[in-house]
Amino acid sequence: MKVFKFGGASVKDAPAIENLKNILQRYENEQLVVVISAMGKTTNFLEKVLDAYYHAPENVPSLVAELRTQHETVAEQLMGADNPFLPHSERLFTLLNEQMQRPTSDNFDYDYDRIVSFGELLSTTLIATYLNTQGLETQWLDARQLVRTDNTYREGHVDWTVTQKLVCNTINPYFQHRSHGIVLTQGFIAGTAENQTTTLGREGSDYSAAIMAYTLDAECVTVWKDVPGILNADPKRFADAVKIDTLTYHETVELAYYGASVIHPKTLRPLHNKQIPLYVKSFFHPENEGSKISQEADTVEIPSYIVKDNQLLISVSPRDFSIIGVENLSKILDILSDYRVKINMIQNSALTFSVCTDNVPLRLKPCIEALQKEFIVKFNDGIRLVTIRHYDADSEKNVLKMFDNEEVIIKQSNRHTIQMILK
């Protein structure tokens, strides 16, 4: 059994979905579990719907209608005007409109999960319907009934014991008497014991694929992307970016931790624990090798560049001029954890503790207010964080030349990695 994951770019429109079908036909004699994200920028669009739900409810009906038109247009392009997706679309949008008519709760993250999750439900329903019309036998399953999490909305923590049972009891019987076939489900979304919808963190579909592979003891996971494999840099920024053919789990986790958009950081742990290899391949050129991540890899340590824009540098100092010791550090880190602030870089001095983080106002504003109750807090926004893994003198010079109009306000390094905050 193999697990495939297709992200939003690989299902963004009708030609992309046709291409997905062509890829699956290459594996028509395999048992496949296919995990799919929302189409294109649908998650971003649903976040816009959510914002209107909170702040401009009069705009919600037109936005939902636009979303419906987008999906039904793609379905028509794939299957004609009178296509079998339309009844499913009617049902899903009735459910979405019912959700939008309920008053907002006192938990934004709860509302986020129950509304934004419709992106995955729509895409997978449309694609499963299309595949079945094309003769590819496909069983659609609801990931909310397979992946069990706690009630940590937007970052659900997986209950592995229950999830193992749910996945195996549902998917294994389907393949018991089938030598081949497709089970298709959603990435990113999950469910609680109370049947509430949760999500696994933004870009969490990779993690969903790893969960499926782990629970099913899959042969491998393949993530299909719009790049030839794992690159040492974002090709939109670095014209000379090159593919890395093989990486270890350890090296991939390091790259993901620093912000490389190759694989969701949580993905590698379950795969590593069962030694399941992960392939990253191009959905434009499925015949090519791509990149392989495994325990034993012949990794060539070339410089890898990770650039994170729109960062915030928060500097925290005790009001009583005391040293930043273990007690103060514990309080600061507890507050950052309470508001789920992701730390991308840390610097500590005698009187100041600084962290660089993604600029997410919804989390940072209350977090800074909580810190200010006990500490002096200063911050710089509009900064850029550049990380070079396996850096050398030339790679550092290349970055400084690329951003030569920006000042390096913090730089720190170890034997393998250098990080620079630019303003």
Structure characterization notes:
The protein has 423 residues and is an alpha/beta fold. It contains 13 helices and 18 strands. The strands form 4 sheets. An 8-stranded mixed beta sheet has the order 3-4-2-1-7-11-12-10, with helices on both faces. A 6-stranded antiparallel beta sheet has the order 14-15-13-16-18-17. A two-stranded antiparallel ribbon has the order 5-6. It is globular and about 70 Å long. 39% of the residues are buried.
Number of contiguous helices: 13
Oligomer: single chain
How many beta strands in the DSSP annotation? 18
Measured distance between first and last alpha carbons = 49 Å
What is the strand content?
15-25%
State the secondary-structure class: alpha/beta
Helix content: 25-40%
Tell the overall outline.
globular
* CATH superfamily membership of the largest domain: Acetylglutamate kinase-like
Q: Could you list the spans in which at least 5 consecutive residues all have pLDDT below 50? A: none
Second-tier CATH architecture of the largest domain: 3-Layer(aba) Sandwich
**Which CATH class of the largest domain applies here?**
Alpha Beta
User: Strands across the major sheet, in which order?
Assistant: 3-4-2-1-7-11-12-10
What is the overall pLDDT average? 95
CATH topology name of the largest domain, in short, is Carbamate kinase
The Cα radius of gyration reads 23 Å
